[in-house]
């Protein structure tokens, strides 16, 4: 019952989310030997003023 | 100081959140012997195009 | 497909984990109207020198 | 490559987020001896009807 | 600066972790158009008595 | 009731954790105007073969 959480800056299209969900599930299923249907995956689209790298908000870079 | 994070697909009413907050806190407090007031709980309502099971977005099922 | 993550300070017995898993799943299933078998739950037992409240490690309180 | 996730109730101004991002990154970099540019930080502003303390939603306190 | 957290039941070999890290990073980089070197990924190997499905610990299934 | 989760590669000494707990709590309390005693903080020390950057495990860099 693997759980996957993905956080990205900015919005994704539905097609991008579909590709990520399918591709990541396939990779984990194959590499770890877990059935695909047991894998639960969440994608969070975060705003650029709420993520920082090196102490600086992405929006300010 | 237990921390609880709950992620569900779709929206909940305030009454549903109240029941979850009270019920889950009671269960953990009793089972683990932790004071109720020390338990911090977050509920995240996620959109159905951002959760996948078996590599397929819930919205597409 | 709800996901639940619970973090507690110190160790729990298996019986405590069983009670938490069953009780929390029952509460969320009933309050949110989600099938029990769709609920995935993780319990993390954290060491007391890795959790702080008010800036002080629990081990030092 | 430290990862920091901060969840707060209610909204923050951009200035508050800038101070948190810079300050927290500085503290972790100095205390743990990690380069600042390797530190990734997320801030989540949660609504008051989705956080509970002691089994009661913050909005109802 | 995507962040990925993967939680699985039981232990993985180093080779399995290498495949997951490479494969998941490739998928997200391609689908979301993010540079590979910006993707930070954590794998957590959880014990079977700390994960539950449908209210039952995996170890007891 | 802010919640802070910090994940770092490798082990920290207790003194490092004390500095991080105190310093991060102070920063968030001051910047966000939250009482210090309401801030809950977790530090996770992760092994270097379970974190990847750019698809490569830190241990292999």
From TrEMBL, chains A, B, C, D, E, F:
| Key words, A-Z | Isomerase
Q: 4-oxalocrotonate tautomerase-like domain: from which residue to which, for each copy?
A: 2-60
Q: Name one GO molecular function term.
A: isomerase activity
Family annotation (InterPro entries)? 4-OT-like_dom (IPR004370), Tautomerase/MIF_sf (IPR014347)
Question: What domain of life?
Answer: Bacteria
- State the name under which the record lists this protein: 4-oxalocrotonate tautomerase
Organism, scientific name: Desulfobulbus propionicus (strain ATCC 33891 / DSM 2032 / VKM B-1956 / 1pr3)
